[in-house]
Amino acid sequence: MPRQSPATRSTPTHCCPKARFSVAVSPPCLCALGTQQPIIGTFTLVDLGQGPLFVEFAVVNIDWRVIGPPGSPDTPVKGAGMYRVGGEFAAQQQLSLDLQVDDENPTHFDSGLVVGGGQFPRIDSEISMHGLVCFDTAINVHALPAADSVSQAIQPTN
After folding, report:
1. What's the pLDDT score for residue 15?
2. What is the DSSP letter of 28?
3. Are 111 and 59 in contact (CB under 8 A)?
4. Which residues touch 91 (CB under 8 Å, ≥6 apart)?
5. Which pTM does this prediction carry?
């Protein structure tokens, strides 16, 4: 995995149009999933260095907005956390964030250590409050470095 040069150790990143926020009921409860709302905004990755298996980053200055239905206000999301990517045999990643959604108390969201991250600096990770079990709040984070996100934003989403 390529390392960043010292001159680019702090990288502003944008959420892509595919990022989604949802409050849902998931298996094993076998209830219907909740609606998904788009998220826009930015955050910054700060390179903390290479460990034995992972490159670690502080995720700072999270400034997101969950886009509300027409006529409803957007919901601000602020926070910070950690992202790590690497692995021994297969690419793995973990995104762990403490987020304040609107005026609620900050809450911990985590992806757990999962397969993925092979396309870093692109980040595709699903974080949740309760491991996606029963009633949970989840955020699908799909992000690219700021320089790449402008071209990504004008491409059709799948």
Report:
1. 57
2. T
3. no
4. 1, 85, 115, 116, 117, 118, 120
5. 0.77
Check residues 14 and 36 and name the one with the higher pLDDT: 36
Residue 52 tokens read as: 């034995």
CA atoms within 13 A on the CB side of 94: 13
Q: How far is CA 97 from CA 60, 94, 105, 128, 155, in A?
A: 9, 10, 13, 9, 28
3-state secondary structure of 124: strand
Cβ density class 126-158: b for 16+ within 10 Å, e for less: bbbbeebeeebbbbbbbbbbeeebeebeeeeee
Please answer whether residues 4 and 47 qualify as being in contact, where contact means their C-beta atoms are separated by less than 8 angstroms: yes
Query: What are the Cα distances from residue 35, in Å, to 23, 25, 98?
Result: 7, 10, 22
Question: Is the bond preceding residue 28 a cis peptide, omega within 30 degrees?
Answer: yes
Pair of tokens at residue 60: 């700072």
Q: What pLDDT is recorded for position 88?
A: 86
Long-range contact pairs involving 95-98 (C-beta distance under 8 Å, separation at least 24): 95/59, 95/123, 95/125, 95/127, 95/141, 96/127, 97/59, 97/62, 97/127
- Residue 11: the pLDDT is 66
Are the C-beta atoms of 38 and 64 separated by less than 8 Å? no
